[in-house]
Design brief:
single chain; mainly beta; 16-stranded antiparallel barrel; two-stranded antiparallel ribbon
């Protein structure tokens, strides 16, 4: 840019010298420098725009500890490696775990661009030495990298391009900084791996809705963030940090509307859906029964089932369709923001790739599930010399479906209760403690002898997390 400006200025100086010496008339000089002057003005305008850019940094870290109180041995929670015991798969982290360590770089460049980059420094990589169920930990991995291009300066119309959250659901959009329960529910979170993908998304947010979103966020009311009142986008479909596996876009649409009553209570309702074709990953899993991979009914029951002493055999399922299986859902969302009582609920239905154990085939399956959560926000909660916020909550989640992004897209049946509280000691420190009653499937493959993959388990777990923000 500096070179372009210097070249344009030197051209103007040369023409001025020729006019002074009488080689060119003033009219001829003005004609020659007209185009160069426009180049100078344009370059200076760009310089001014970049000079008005901003660079900001923030982040947060989450440390977890999860004592197992009672229940079946050898349990695994696919979303949290700190849940497990000495019989759990592949050396689960049973004690302290850094669940997330995020750094966020963001800012504006001129009136038309907002950028956002978020790596996680506590990711796990498979296939490395000292691997746990998801691989060795402490690696950096990209979570978000996108730019918002504002079509209008009032930010009503914008297009987001890059890796970002796919606008599906309310809880999926919530940052883990804002969410009450420690994990997103399986029924909604199974829609998009890590909630993110590469794509382009159009967001429409009228100024009055922008203002209400900001009021919700500033009030600490557990908002999901501004993902538009209306959203429409296309994305690869395989999930964050994964290459696309077919020449087929996923298409997503979402509409959500917040409103405020005369009493000051804020509500929000939304509907969303997506459609595409997903290519699952088929790998070996432990099954029972000689030359077939068919399991008896008792074998797919509780995790203690040993199939009557039969030998465990390894089988790899085949894909019913190799270049993509139907992957589509529609969901409803409702939020009554905690002022002080709050209520949150979501449910979705759809089709997804899923493992049919009887035929040892990954094929199109149906799903449904969701959750209901109540909460109560207590401000000015004082303990010793602290003056923070306490939010107790109760959550029930249900899912009868399949997790397409896990190996073999196994069936996942969930009927869990969570009772807990979030204590915001100060803006920079938060503590979450919850009792989690689990009734669900083991989605992690690689069980030891006499343990069937994808068996159901029950457990009572105390889950603790300390989060510090900076």
């Amino acid at each position: 840019m500096a070179g372009q400006l210097a070249l344009a200025d030197s051209t103007n100086d040369l023409v001025d010298a020729l006019v002074t010496k009488g080689v060119l008339t003033e009219e001829e000089g003005k004609l020659l420098t007209k185009g160069h002057q426009g180049e100078v003005d344009g370059t200076k305008k760009k310089e001014k725009s970049y000079a008005r850019g901003s660079f900001n940094f923030r982040g947060y870290t989450q440390a977890r500890n999860t004592p197992v109180i009672s229940g079946d041995d050898g349990i695994n929670l696919w979303s949290d490696r700190s849940v497990g015991d000495d019989s759990s798969l592949n050396n689960q982290d049973h004690n302290f775990l850094i669940r997330r360590m995020r750094m966020i770089f963001y800012g504006d460049v001129g009136d038309r661009l907002y950028y956002y980059v978020q790596p996680d420094l506590a990711s796990s990589i498979g296939g490395t030495s000292n691997s746990n169920v998801s691989g060795a930990g402490g690696f950096a991995q990209l979570r978000d990298a996108y730019g918002d291009i504002y079509i209008t300066k009032n930010k009503v119309h914008r297009i987001r391009v890059g890796q970002s959250k796919v606008p599906y659901g309310f809880e999926n959009m919530q940052s883990s900084q804002n969410r009450l329960a420690l994990d997103r529910v399986d029924a909604m979170n199974s829609a998009v791996r890590d909630e993110r993908d590469l794509g382009a998304f159009y967001y429409y947010t009228p100024e009055n809705v922008q203002a209400l979103f900001k009021e919700i966020q500033d009030g600490g009311l557990k908002h999901s963030g501004n993902y538009g009142m209306l959203a429409l986008g296309i994305y690869n479909g395989q999930g964050a940090n994964a290459r696309d596996m077919n020449d087929n876009y996923h298409v997503v649409a979402r509409a959500t509307y917040p409103w405020k009553t005369e009493s000051g209570q804020i509500f929000e309702m939304g509907i969303q859906g997506y459609h595409g074709e997903y290519v699952p990953v088929a790998r070996t899993y432990n099954a029972t029964g000689g030359t077939t991979a068919t399991l008896a009914t008792a074998d797919i029951g509780r995790i203690t089932a040993t199939s009557g002493g039969a030998t465990l055999v390894t089988r790899q399922p085949r894909l019913a369709v190799s270049n993509g299986i139907a992957d589509e859902r529609v969901g409803l969302s409702f939020m009554m923001y905690p002022q002080p009582f709050g209520l949150e609920a979501e449910w979705n239905w759809g089709k997804t790739p899923g493992l049919d154990i009887a035929t040892n085939t990954i094929q199109e399956k149906s799903l449904n599930g969701g959750y209901v959560q109540t909460m109560y926000k207590i401000d000015n909660f004082k303990f010793l010399d602290t003056n923070g916020t306490l939010i107790p909550f109760l959550k029930w989640q249900y899912f009868d479906g399949y997790n397409k992004a896990e190996d073999n897209a196994p069936r996942n049946q969930v009927n869990d209760w969570e009772l807990g509280m979030e204590w915001q000691i100060a803006p920079e420190v938060e503590l979450v403690a919850e009792y989690h009653r689990m009734k669900r499937n083991n989605l992690v493959t690689g069980n030891t002898n006499n343990r069937l993959d994808y068996a159901r388990f029950e457990a009572d777990v105390l889950r603790l997390q300390l989060q510090w923000n900076y």
